[in-house]
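Meet my pick.
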Amino acid sequence: MQRWRGLEDIPQDWGRSVVTIGSYDGVHRGHQLIIRHAVDRGRELGVPTVVVTFDPHPSEVVRPGSHPPLLAPHHRRCELMAELGVDAVLVLPFTAEFSKLSPADFIVKVLVDKLHARAVVEGPNFRFGHKAAGNVEFLAEQGKVYDFAVEVVDLYLTGAAGGGEPFSSTLTRRLVAEGDVAGAAEILGRPHRVEGVVVRGAQRGRELGFPTANVETLPHTAIPADGVYAGWLHAAGEAMPAAISVGTNPQFDGTERTVEAYAIDRVGLDLYGLHVAVDFLAFVRGQAKFETLDALLEQMAQDVKRCRELVAEADGR
């Protein structure tokens, strides 16, 4: 899959293509419906499929300080899009100047002059251009002028997690923030993932017999609510069952919020300096402070046992 940053990266000889545009944070099941439709359409027409997305998130430019927590960094979104069959991803730097492009100018500069769109696939609520003035109706009108079709994909509704709401990144972020990682996974179609480099922490876990990977998360990462979770630690090409702790470590009067993952039943792991990923499968319990260190150790042993069981159940499905 090709990856371009900015319009100037698009090959000069690029021909017609099927295009879909959006932030696509998380590449959740609603996004997947749109992208798969675009890929299928591209294959029917015999042309490549391009996803157009933005960096940074448009809200940070339009309303500084409002950058939402991210469900997936750009490299992860590209991986997921490649798995869906996308041929190219165009990341457009979203600047103040770019934000002022009218919907009509956006269509000409991006879809017509550079990507030579033959079809554009979007969800029903797609908005674009200065002050989000453009919508799918306007896009369809312009498509008649510039010879591209517009196809709108209705998004399915979620199950119990969403209470009948459409799939959305906003809903997924809320569920993650509440610690409902199972509900978030229902929308994402996979466990919520947090990534970063393993750094040295206080090393109390090692002293207590549960050495953890202290993950320095990427900026703006959507981190689940404080507590203990079952999941997986992905490192050096391996997915290891893990007990994951999120929080400030109140037992030792900590103040900094951290994400730490203990690779269950693994001895002698040295992950310092490695980029790792942590997948959240299920919430186990909330953060707590115990009366004694022995009580904490007993609870940690129970947590690890429960996490081992939950991961084994998930792996056995």
In short: The longest helix spans residues 293-315. The chain has two domains: 2-152, 192-315. Residues 2-152 form a domain with the Rossmann fold fold (CATH 3.40.50.620). Confidence is low (pLDDT under 50) at residues 158-162.
